[in-house]
Amino acid sequence: MSSPGGPWGSHGQQYDPLTGQPMGGAQYQQPDAQQYQGFGAYGQPQPQYQQAQYQQPQYPGMVSGFPTPPPKKNRGPLITAIALAAVAVIAIVTTVVVLLVPTGREEAAPPPQSPTTTRSTPTSTAPPSAANPDLTPIVPGWQVVRVPKRTALYDVPISGWELDPDPENIQAYGPPEDPVTMTGVADYQVGFCPGDPRSYRATSGVSARKGPDDTAVATETLAKLVQLAHTRDGVPPIVETGAPEHIQLPGNVPAVRVTARVTLPKPGPCDSATALTSVVATNSDGQSSVVLMATADQGVEGALSPEDLDKLTGSLRAAP
Fold this sequence. Notes:
The protein is α+β, with helices and mostly antiparallel strands. It contains 3 helices and 14 strands. The strands form 3 sheets. Strands 5, 6, 7, 8, 9, 10, 11, 12 and 13 form a 9-stranded antiparallel β-sheet that branches. Strands 3-4-14 form a 3-stranded antiparallel β-sheet. Strand 12 and strand 13 form a beta hairpin. The longest helix is centred in the N-terminal third of the chain and has 25 residues.
């Protein structure tokens, strides 16, 4: 698959959320001769949009992400009290030892043995090659993706995955007037398609979407993402959507996950015939939810397995 469409919605091209203008952090340039219609396929030229008029969608009451954890309490008085109590106990024990020594004997008690102190240096379980090695992944052997805009983290495998150097970059699917956007993006097998440096086999990112509850947000976001990402030359994909799953994210945070199997009737040169797309929604405030979106080609060499897709989407959590 490669980045879907049009001059604004190119996955891999980043845009300023206030001005709509392309930002300097983009890794790839849009081809001049023609625009991408969808993942991995060149399509017909798309209409040009006035980028400067686009504003990042704002919803009343839109959640910004996971709640910020409260500051740690000052434990200084407690530590002081414990230290004073320890001194008092030592003094009492010393007095008892002196009183128990028989009078008239020149017998000294053997000196107490000095306890051996072993210092250990905290280490992260993340491999040295992982991004953000200062953070510990929930999935052993994976790496952590930061999503500062949503105060969130999630995990992806290490081998073959590339994280956006700036997790604040906004990447999008669809036209500027009604897109699906995400930040904290990670891509798998970037540039696998010859001649298309923006192609990838899987991608993931986090956003916030409007809706009354997590089930509605997950279902509606999945349907929209699938249509925008997998339509080819005006031909929509065939979608088999599973029932919503109620899951527990790390920290026993409730969430809803919806997954669909997508079949492309007219796959492009670098498209796989099938793909899996999964959306997790959580932290609903009655108006919107935080969502983690991921889509992955199937039936190709090195494809992300359904089990690993579940691990990825199930690793969404609040940042410390």
